[in-house]
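Hi support team,

I've been running sequence recovery on a batch of backbones for a student project. Most finish fine, but this one hangs at about 90% for roughly twenty minutes before it completes. I'm not sure whether the input is malformed or the queue is just slow. I've pasted the structure tokens below so you can try to reproduce it. Let me know if you need the job ID as well.

Thanks,
M.K.
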């Protein structure tokens, strides 16, 4: 059992150092500090993400798809993230059915969202919608009545699964009222999670359904140190329920340096094409990149805080594009060095007609729920404590370092 494994790790290795922490690491975004248990996935700087030990290509090969040779179903990723096991197609179908049975969104949630002007950013509407769903929290009710701490994970599981199930309808409602004049598309009880989401957004193209399966799967988790994942874990460690924790994480995801990056990539590429053209030379591209950097901006979608090789999530999107849209001009613009997942996702979405860039982060949020909520269940099942790192002042750092030099 995972709880017994945790006890053995604490017993045998509790006093073992995981590495030195430097001043640069402490004041540089805590990069490189090993300080968080996250079982769902692990990010290797050279290899990329592994979901429960499986690389992304291995997941694509092993996890069940909606059709032969197609993209893996997000329900399979959810099963893998929750259990650490590769599911059968029958097991994936039970997850699809379970999520469908939980997907009814209470009417007051739509009332809350409708209180916003349609000009409100979709992420603002999403976090408000998630907060409105919090009235349904099974954990909040159980905690109020005095549930034993060893049972915390059970209502957390119910909340997590309910939230994952209801997010597509909430997101589709936001998309409709913000961009489509309020025209709604009914859920389809006969298709999988991603295809149903795409249909509720108004997309009937099977290739768009395949893209949505791929998109949700590869965005589902990226270990625990990124802003949205860490925020969900941090807030959840205070025993805030999954709705409160996930809403907090989504506010982090809305930041330009995190979840907004995919729309910024597409915007940058579109500006490049508008100013230079799609048939751009290496010299022209270099000059445009230099112009961007000299203006004090970054080139979005290239490089990564952890990865030091091409993001495998980019590579699987590239393979999808080579298969389905090899001649798209925007696809051809997405190149090295070291492109990450954001460098491609917006290009694919706009190709299939989802051109509303401010909505892209909502899609990211729906996908990221699978990973962060799976881990949140395990946080409570393992009895992980409230997170409380030590902070420092300038004076403390100076005095500490000077005392080290003096010694």
């Amino acid at each position: 059992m995972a709880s017994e494994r945790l006890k053995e790790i604490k017993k045998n290795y509790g006093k073992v150092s995981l590495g030195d922490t430097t001043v640069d690491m402490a004041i540089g975004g805590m990069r490189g500090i090993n300080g968080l248990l996250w079982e769902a996935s692990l990010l290797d700087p050279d290899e990329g993400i592994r979901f429960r030990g499986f690389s992304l290509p291995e997941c694509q090969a092993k996890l069940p798809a909606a059709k032969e040779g197609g993209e893996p179903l997000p329900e399979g990723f959810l099963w893998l993230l929750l259990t650490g096991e590769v599911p059968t197609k029958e097991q994936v179908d039970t997850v699809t059915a379970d999520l469908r049975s939980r997907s009814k969104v209470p009417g007051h949630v739509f009332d809350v969202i409708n209180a916003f002007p349609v000009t409100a950013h979709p992420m603002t509407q999403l976090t408000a919608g998630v907060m409105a769903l919090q009235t349904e929290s099974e954990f909040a009710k159980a905690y109020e009545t005095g549930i034993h701490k060893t049972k915390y994970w059970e209502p957390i599981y119910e909340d997590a699964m309910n939230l994952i199930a209801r997010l597509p309808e909430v997101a589709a409602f936001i998309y409709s009222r913000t961009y489509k004049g309020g025209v709604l598309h009914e859920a389809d009880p006969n298709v999988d999670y991603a295809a149903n989401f795409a249909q509720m957004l108004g997309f009937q193209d099977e290739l768009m359904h395949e893209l949505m399966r791929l998109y949700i799967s590869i965005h589902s988790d990226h270990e625990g140190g990124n802003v949205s994942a860490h925020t969900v874990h941090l807030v959840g460690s205070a025993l805030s329920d999954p709705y409160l924790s996930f809403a907090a994480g989504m506010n982090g995801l809305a930041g330009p340096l995190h979840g907004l990056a995919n729309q910024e990539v597409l915007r940058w590429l579109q500006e490049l094409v508008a100013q230079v053209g799609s048939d751009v030379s290496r010299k022209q591209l270099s000059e445009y990149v230099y112009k961007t950097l000299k203006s004090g901006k970054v080139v979005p979608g290239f490089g990564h805080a952890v990865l030091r090789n091409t993001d495998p999530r980019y590579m699987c999107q590239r393979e999808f594009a080579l298969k389905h849209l090899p001649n798209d001009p925007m696809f051809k613009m997405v190149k090295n060095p070291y492109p990450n997942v954001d460098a491609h996702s917006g290009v694919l979405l706009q190709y299939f007609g989802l051109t509303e860039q401010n909505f892209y982060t909502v899609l990211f949020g729906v996908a990221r729920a699978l990973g962060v909520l799976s881990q949140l269940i395990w946080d409570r099942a393992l009895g992980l404590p409230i997170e409380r790192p030590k902070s420092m002042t300038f004076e403390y750092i100076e005095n500490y370092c000077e005392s080290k030099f003096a010694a």
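--
Follow-up from support: It reproduced on our side and the slowdown came from queue contention, not your input. The radius of gyration is 22 Å. No action needed from you.
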